[in-house]
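Thread title: Can someone regenerate the structure for this chain?

I was given the following input by a collaborator and told the matching structure tokens would be attached. They weren't. Posting the sequence so someone can regenerate them.
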Amino acid sequence: MKLDDKLWQKYERLKKIIESLEGVVIGFSGGVDSTFLLKAAHDVLGDKVLAVIATSETYPQREIEDALKLAQELGVRFKLIKTHELQDDNFRQNPPQRCYYCKKELFTKLKTIAQEKGFKWVLDGSNYDDLDDFRPGTKARDELGVRSPLQEAKLTKKDIRLLSKYFGLSTWSKPSFACLASRFPYYTPIDEEDLQRIGQAEDFLRGLGFRQVRVRHHGFLARIEVLLEEIPRLVEQKEMVVKKFKALGYRYVTIDLEGYRSGSMNEVLESLEF
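Best answer:
Regenerated them for you:
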């Protein structure tokens, strides 16, 4: 596999940015972006890198386990912490700015850890494509002085997947993932029981072989998003899916005919006042 010159130049720029930071704490989720950032930072800074993995009710245990495994495989120092989004009413009420409150808590904790370790910078895995999306967490990032080297180097998600494949990272083809709170329509309160229900429903679908999955939670109705080409297979297994979802407490089980799309809950934002 050969990388084109423009992509390689972006990668070299990323390394120079990281080198200038001297020592960093990285918020590590085990996803495509943060895994590539962690690998690049470790290659450049060695032991002056600490990966911090945050656990909470909004992330499935399998994601935490994957992140721990990846950190160990990369040979990077890591620390596990607990965040408490559900204790914040601003988060629980689920306004469009929900992610701001989550990221503010996380980045504040990461900055404290960085200060304890004598590191100046906290990094996150935001990429260049994220500039085109609705990302309230960016405000918290900027307020707290967190850096996004992938974004600064203008690396897109496609770029990061290509580089990850080139360097042999298992995450190069990992499906995109967002916290389970993103499955709720805005202003629908978030609670732990519903988060667990959504996580179990998505785990069930993944167990059937669907890789890119979202179960959007509309009270008693579940709206399933899978890739367009996988919808026929989901229909074929509808009886099994309906039975499982009803056992989890849903009364109605639907398939979104537009298929999976990142941030589909944001499609209503133009009609909301906030």
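Residues 98-117 form the longest helix (20 residues).
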